[in-house]
Amino acid sequence: MYEVDHADVYDLFYLGRGKDYAAEASDIADLVRSRTPEASSLLDVACGTGTHLEHFTKEFGDTAGLELSEDMLTHARKRLPDATLHQGDMRDFRLGRKFSAVVSMFSSVGYLKTTEELDAAVASFAEHLEPGGVVVVEPWWFPETFADGWVSADVVRRDGRTVARVSHSVREGNATRMEVHFTVADPGKGVRHFSDVHLITLFHQAEYEAAFTAAGLRVEYLEGGPSGRGLFVGVPA
Ligand SMILES: C[S@@+](CC[C@H](N)C(=O)[O-])C[C@H]1O[C@@H](n2cnc3c(N)ncnc32)[C@H](O)[C@@H]1O
Fold first, then answer.
1. Which atom of ligand 1 is nearest to the CA of 21?
2. pTM
3. Whose Cα sits closest to atom 26 in ligand 1?
């Protein structure tokens, strides 16, 4: 039976669609250094397949990744055989060491369901911070910036493989319900379809800010960021 690996498709798709992980990591490194000039280590929380982490390691040398999904971690290990990668949950992890920077990219915190979970996650980030360190979180959209009914559609081709991704996002309660359909074709092998539903919480800006404050961090929100959703930056208060 012809099977496709979902994490492989995810990787190919975002890189092929032009998401510039190297440029994003470089901008985040500059932001980290603007708050913590001597920064020498970084933890990437919800690191996925390790694409930012690869570039963060070139910037800081001493890095680690944390990720919930074994599937994503398997790919991160393949990409970065020498990296320190932990399987864990951002709401409650203890790595037994601290970092100059703790970052979480591409709206991974949106997978948290409640403000209690968001508070717990940001508190865990703060607990892993060296004195004078910095936390950077890329949020999901806020309720007022999310475009209800949004459709995105792209086709990406690489090494013979073609991936088409179409998504439709609607508001469901305090979350985005994003239905994503992938069609993947490999020459001589066949064509497969799979779909996922993502529920991504539409936390308010004030809820993110409250999580940082409760964790003992002074927070600012920077507009723009890698995906237009902005960035929260926290330093010890
Ligand atoms: C949109 S992906 C982003 C991955 C990566 N940061 C990137 O920029 O490509 C969201 C990631 O968050 C991870 N994730 C979701 N909930 C998590 C949790 N509670 N703890 C750790 N990782 C989690 C998922 O497994 C997934 O890899």
1. 8
2. 0.96
3. 48
